[in-house]
Amino acid sequence: MDFCFDRPVDRRNTGSLKWDVAEGELPMWVADMDFRTAPAVREAIRARAEHGVFGYSIVPDGWYEAYISWWRDRHGFSMERDWLIFCTGVVPAISSMVRKLTTPAEKVLLMTPVYNIFFNSILNNGRQALESRLVYDGTEYRIDFEDLERKLADPQTTLMLLCNPHNPIGKIWDRETLERIGALCRKHHVVVISDEIHCDLTAPGRDYVPFASVSEDCRDNSITCIAPTKAFNIAGLQTAAVCVPNPVLRHKVWRGLNTDEVAEPNAFAVDAAIAAFTKGGDWLDALRAYLEDNKTLVKDFVRRELPGLHVVPSEATYLLWVNLGSGETSAEDAAEFIRKKTGLYLSAGNPFGGDGGCFLRLNAACPRSVLVDGLSRLKEGIEAWKAQ
Questions:
Q1: Is residue 346 domain-shared with residue 210, that is, in the same domain?
Q2: CA-closest candidate to residue 221, choices 104, 101, 68
Q3: Which of 220, 245, 279 is the last residue of a domain?
Q4: Cβ–Cβ under 8 Å, residues 351 and 34
């Protein structure tokens, strides 16, 4: 079936965070796709809207069954119904758990560069963000386990936020790596929150490893954040879940989410999630193939037209982490210059921590004609920036 990923969708004047930009600008920054969601999801929303009554909603059995079946069939991980708690989004859940599972001034560990909003969830709640920097060898990233353990061993470190797969570098952490992280966190009494929101956006033929599936240490000492929102482009519907196998942790998380009032669905949140996970598989597989072709296009273009730059190999997500090269540490200046010169709006890497000041993040989840336009602007902007 042709899902029309090549067909541009005009998102201007729709209240879009991504597209609320000046005329002529091309936004390729926030993690938000420019594709219509799966037909099954649109139909479920349409049917719910036609009912016409939008009172308080519950979380029905079908919601639990949809999550359980999807993770069992897609990812080989068997979840139990009691492990799952509805929440309105992964970020609200993380912020709630930071408040509930830590005390003010304690440290929350991050492997950076990482999703920049993690820092907000930590710092805005009066905790300290502790970075264990990933090591970039000029091609890809690896974990500095000596540094990681030293920081986990700090008595003030009580929580770790893991990104699996890892945004922005597109890394799928393998089972051995996750097992090692889990063992270290258990050893040093550090609870893990694993953000797995990008897990369904792996390259064709590739799967990710759910952190909680790896070992007893990982399962009993973690909370996993999951959702259909990134894969099916429905973030605005505010629908997500946390999976908490450990009953003691689960009670704390449940209390936090309910105290913060982020555990009740809106009228469309449940039906959209059920439709995505029960009827959206074919659309998602077609999307993954399209995204992989887009990412290949970007890598080939940069290699051919911008040899001073390097695109970090990406196994997952639709985001590409572009190294400016030559030890550049002025990504904010580059992003601002490119936007002013060409209208191309990219994310500067600085807010992602670590060595992010040397990188730009590019969102390739758009029709190919739009991507080609973006790459042309990227070349124009980079060449002009370098020529200053």
A1: no
A2: 101
A3: 279
A4: no
Q: Is the peptide bond before 165 cis (omega within 30 degrees of 0)?
A: yes
Tens-digit pLDDT string for the chain (388 aa):
779 999 999 999 999 999 999 999 999 999 999 999 999 999 999 999 999 999 999 999 999 999 999 999 999 999 999 999 999 999 999 999 999 999 999 999 999 999 999 999 999 999 999 999 999 999 999 999 999 999 999 999 999 999 999 999 999 999 999 999 999 999 999 999 999 999 999 999 999 999 999 999 999 999 999 999 999 999 999 999 999 999 999 999 999 999 999 999 999 999 999 999 999 999 999 999 999 999 999 999 999 999 999 999 999 999 999 999 877 678 999 999 999 999 999 999 999 999 999 999 999 999 999 999 999 999 999 999 999 8
Beta strands in the chain (DSSP E): 26-27, 84-87, 107-112, 128-133, 135-136, 141-142, 157-163, 191-195, 222-226, 240-243, 310-311, 319-323, 344-345, 347-348, 359-363
Report how many domains make up the chain.
2
Q: Is residue 4 part of a domain?
A: no
- φ/ψ of 56, rounded to 5, equals -60, 140
**Mapping DSSP to helix (H, G, I), strand (E, B) and coil, where does residue 343 land?**
coil
Domain of residue 31, residue span: 26-37+281-386
Indicate whether 265 and 341 sit together in one domain. Answer: no
**Quick one: 229 and 297 in the same domain?**
no
Report yes or no on 195 lying in a domain: yes
227 lies in the same domain as 300 = no
Has residue 230 been placed in a domain? yes
CATH number for the domain spanning 248: value is 3.40.640.10
